[in-house]
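Internal ticket #5521
Category: modeling
Description: The requester needs a full-assembly model to guide mutagenesis choices. All entity lines are attached below as received. Residue total reported by intake: 819.
Assigned to: D.W.
Attached entities:
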Amino acid sequence: MEIALNQANDASLLRLEGAMDISVAAELKAALLEAMAAGKAIRVSAEAVTELDVSAYQLLWAAEREAKRSGLPFAFTRRLSKEIEGLLANQGLEPLAAGQESAKNQGDKPMDSRAGS
Amino acid sequence: MKEAVAGNAEQFKHSFREEAREILTELESALLGLHENRGDKEVIGRIFRGLHTIKGSGSMFGFERMAAFTHDLETAYDHVRNGRLEIGSELIDLTLAALDQIAAMLEEGAEGVAPADPAVCAGILAGVRKLASIEEETKPAKKSQPAPEPPAAAAGPIESWRIRFAPGPDLMRFGAKPSLLVNELGQLGELAARAVLDAVPPLGEIDPERCYVRWEMELATAAGAEAIRDVFIFVEDTCELTIEPAAGAAPALEETRPASEAEITARALAEKRNATPGRRTYDTPDNASSLRVPAAKLDLFVNLVGELVTVQARLSEIAAKHDDPEIAAVSEEVERLTSSLRDNSMNIRMMPIRATFEKFRRLVHDLARDLGKNVELTIEGADTELDKTVIDQLSDPLMHLIRNSMDHGIEPAALRAARGKRPTATIHLAAKHSGASVLIAVSDDGGGIDAEAVRNRAIERGLVAAGADLTEAEIFALLFQPGFSTAKQITDVSGRGVGMDVVRQRVDSLRGSINVASKAAEGTTVTLRLPLTLAIIDGLLVSIGDAFFVLPLANVLECVELTQADVERANGKHIADVRGEIVPYIRLREHFGIRTPRPEIEQIMIASTEGGRYGFVVDKVLGNCQTVIKNLGRFYRHVKVVSGATILGDGSVALVLDPERVAHDAVRATAHGVRAGPSVAAIAAAVKQSLRGRSAAPQRTV
C-alpha cells in the first residue's frame, strides 16, 4: 500500500493505493493534515485502493468535512472502485466526496513524493 | 505502531481462541445430547449457530482454513434444521471428528499440539457432503459463499429487528473490523444499515486506531435474536449493542431522522428501565459481569497477596512488641484488609467444575462405542467451585478413573442382563463441598472390584505378604500402586496399571486423598477428597520445643489440656478422655523425634480425619494464623505428613501438617513398632534455605 502526497500549484494531490486499514491510518491522518495545512484544493486518487476500512473512511470523511468548512474543494481525481463503493454503501457509509465532479487528472504525477509503505 | 497493532491482533486472536474453545465444548455437549434426543430442534439450532460463529468469527480473526472447513458442516446443519436432512449417528460422529480437527486448527502452532490432518479433514468433508447431498439434490453450497442460508430458508417466520451497534473505542485496535460484522449481519437477511458519524472529531483530534462510527440497522431475518447476537459474540463485551424487535411493520429505517436530545435521553432511560436480554451497554452493571483475565496474571496476584499475608504477620508481631496504640491500630487495620484481600483473591480463583465434567461426555461416548457398551454419563454438582489450579490438574485423574470404570467396571451387556441390571450402564460424576475440601466422586453401576483378586495379585507381585491381614480399604488402596492391574487383558483403554498410579500421584500432589468403595455386582465409587485451594489456608499455629507447626483449622475440632495426671490415668496408653469420649492421640514430639524436654501441661488438638477423631499433642497453641503455603523443596517432596511450609512473622519456619497423613502414618508406625515421622529440624532448615534462596532472587518487575 502507498500513501503519497504531492503538491501541485493549485492543489494537494493525495494518491492512495492498496489496503487502507488501521495499519496505515496514522500515516493517512498525517498526510491529510498536511494537505489541509497546505490550504489548497485536495484531490484524491483512490482508484487503486483495494480495501477501505472504517479507520481510513472516518479520516477521509473528517477531512472532507473540514475542507468544506474551510472552503477548500475536496474531490477525487480517480474515484474508489465500484466494488469498494458498493461495500461502503452496504455498510451504510455515505459516499465520500459525493456530488463533487471528478477533478481533471492534472498534476496527478508525483513531484514531491512522500511515500508510505 | 504496526507492531502494536499486530500485538493487539494477537491478543484478540487469543481471546477468540478462548471463546472458540468454549463453543467447541458446548458443541460437543450438544451433539452428544442429540444422540439421545434427535428431534430436539433447539439443540440443532444451537449446533448450527455454534458452527456459524466458529466459521464467521474464525475468518474474521484470520483462521481462514478453519472457516472454510466449517462451512460445509454448517450447511449440513442448516439442512438438518430445515428438515431437509435427517440427523443420524453418522453425521453426529463425523461432526465430533470435525470438532477435533477444528480444535487442532485453532491451536495450530502451539507446542505439543498435533496439527489438523488434511487427509482426515478431507475424509470428514467428503462424508458430510455425501450425507447432505442425499437429501439435497441441488446442492447450492459454493466455497466462496460465506453463509449457507438464504434468509427465507432459515427456520421460523421473518421478523424485523432494530440493531444499534456502537463499537467500543478499542475494537479496531484489537484487530476486529466493524465492517465485517455489518457484512455478516447482512448475510442473515435483508439489511438496511446507516452509519452515524456524528461522533467523529476534527481531523487533528482523531485517534487513527479508534472507531468513532456507530451503526443503526434494521434487519429482516428468520434467524432470530440469538443468531444476530452470535454475529457480535466476540466483541459484545467491548461494544454497545441493542437488539430489539422493530416496532410494527414500519419500513426499514423509517426513523433515520436524527433524534432530538430529549428523545435520545427519554429512549435511553426507558431502555435502562426495561433492559431486555438483547441489550448490552457500557453503563449497565451487566457489562461488567465478567472479565477474561489470563491465568498467569491471577497467579501472580495470588502470590503477591500471599507475600503480603506473610509481611502482615510480621507487622502484627512487631506491633505486639511495641506498646504503641497508634502502631497497633494501623496493624489491626492492615490485618483486617489483608484478610479481606486474601479471601477475595481466593474467590477470584474459584471456578465451577462444570466444564471439566462436561468434557467427559465425549470420552464416555467414544469409549462406549469402542468397547461396544451402552453407557450414559450423569453429572451432579457441576456448579461446585474449586481453585482453578486444582481444576486444571483434575482432568487426568478423572479421565483414568472413567476409563477404568468403562473398561473394567461396567460388565458386558450379557452379564448385565444376567444380573438383572438396566442394559444402559451409568457412570456418575459428582462434586460437593465438605468443609475446606471438595469431594469428587466417580461412580459406576458395574461389577464392583473383586477384593480377593486384588489381594491375590498383590501377593503375586510381592506387594503384601501372603498372610497379611488387610482391611477392604487397604486392599483397594493397592490398586493405586505403580504398575498394579488385575485386568486379565490389556486393552487400548486400560489395564496396563499406569492410570491408577497417575491418579494417586496427582491427588497426592494436590494434597488430596482417595477413597474406594465397592460392592460386588453393584458397582464402585472412587471419591477424591481435594482441598478447596492450594495457596493460603486458615490454620492454628502450635509449637513443640522450638519447632513450629500449622494445623489446618478446617480439621481442628477443639483443644484440651493433657496433664501428667491424665497420662498416668491412661496407664501410659495414648488415649485421652474428652468429656467421656475416648480419643487416641499422637505425640507429635515423639512422631517427629523432637528431643527437647516435655512441659508439665501439654495441649491436645482434637482433629477430625477420615479414620475418625485423633488428638495431636503439642506444647503450646499460639493462635490462629493465615498461612501462605510454600512447597517443600524437591528433596522433601516425598514427606507426605507435611503438606507445605510457611514463614512466620519473625522469619522462622512452620511446617503445615496434614492431619490425615500424620494419623495414618502414626497408626502404621504403632502397628510396626517404629517411629514414622521425618526429622522436622532438617525439613525446616531446608525450607528456610530454599525460601531464602528464592526471595534473594530478583523478583517481579511489574
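Resolution: model delivered.
Comment from assignee: Confidence is low (pLDDT under 50) at residues 134-154, 249-288, 489-493, 693-702 of chain B.
Ticket closed.
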